Amino acid sequence: MLSRRLGPARLQIRVIAMEGLFASIDHSPIASVVTDARLPDNPIMAVNRAFCALTGYGRDEIVGRNCRFLAGADTEASAQAILRLAVAEGRPALVELTNYRKDGSAFLNAVMVAPIIGEAGELAYFLGSQMDVGAGSGLSAPRRQRAEALVRALTPRQLQVLEHMIAGYRNKQIAGFLAIDEKTVKMHRASLLTRLSVGSSAEAIRIGVEAGLELKVGT
Question: Phi and psi (nearest 5°) for 110?
Fold first, then answer.
C-alpha cells in the first residue's frame, strides 16, 4: 500500500533545516528513520543505509512516505493499531509485525517508535527503528532480558537521562528538567552509551524501550 508523497521542494526545506538531527541516525547500525509528526500522515524525512539494506528500497523511494508502505496482506492489524495509538499519543512503543521488502519477501519486524520533542515543547518528530527478528521470535524473549540487564547497569543519573531521551527530550530540555547544566547532560549521555555498548542515541533509546523504561511525571 503506497501512501501520499510530499512535494520535493517542501521536503528539501525541512530536511535542510533539521539535517543535524537526521544525520544522527546514520551512526546507527540498526535500520532507522525519522518521521515528521507535524505533517499529514507522519511522513519519513530521513532514512539510514541500514533501513535501505533491510527493506531493499532506495532513499528516494522511502522519503515522503508513511512507514506503513512496508505493510502487506499478512501484516497484523493489532500491531498496527498499537503503533497508530502511540503516534497519536506521542509516546514510545515496540511491536513485532509482518512487513515486506521491495522484492515481496516477508519478514518479522520488531518496530520501535519514540517521540522527539521540539524546542517549544511540541511533538515534532518520531524516531523509528526496525529489526528483522526471524520466525518465532517474541518481545519477551532474550532481547528484552538483555535490554533489562544493560539498563540495570546504569547509574541513577544515567537512567534519568535515558528516560528523558526515550520521552523525546534533547540535551537542553533534559538539563532543565534535572536542574543540571547541559554539559553535564552530554557527559551522562556519552557515558550511558558506553555502558550500553552502543554508538548512537538511537540505539540507546531502542534498548530503553525494549527494557520497558517509561518517564514518570515529575522525574
Answer: -90, 105
The 3-state DSSP class for residue 35 equals strand
Q: Which residues contact 163 (CB under 8 A, 6 or more apart)?
A: 208, 213, 214, 215, 216, 219
Evaluate whether 51 touches 32 at the Cβ level (below 8 Å).
yes
CB 87, CB 113: distance < 8 Å: yes
Q: Residue 78 — φ and ψ, nearest 5°?
A: -65, -40
- Tens of pLDDT, residue by residue over 11-64, are 444 444 456 666 778 878 999 999 999 999 999 999 999 999 999 999 999 999
Three-point CA angle 17, 21, 25, nearest 5°: 135
**Best CA proximity match to 110, nearest among 65, 146, 66, 141:** 141
Residue that is written with C-alpha cell 541500514 in the block: 50
**8 Å CB contact between 130 and 54:** yes
How many other C-beta atoms lie within 10 A of the C-beta of residue 85? 11
Phi and psi, residue 3, nearest 5°: -110, 170
What sign has the CA pseudo-torsion 25, 96, 124, 115?
A: negative
In order of their start, the domains of the chain are 8-130 (3.30.450.20), 142-210 (1.10.10.10)
Say what the alpha-carbon torsion angle 141, 73, 82, 156 is, to the nearest 10 degrees: 40
Distance from C-alpha of 105 to C-alpha of 122, rounded to nearest angstrom: 38
C-alpha cell at 91: 509516546
What residues does 107 pair with on adjacent strands? 99
Q: What is the pTM of this model?
A: 0.85
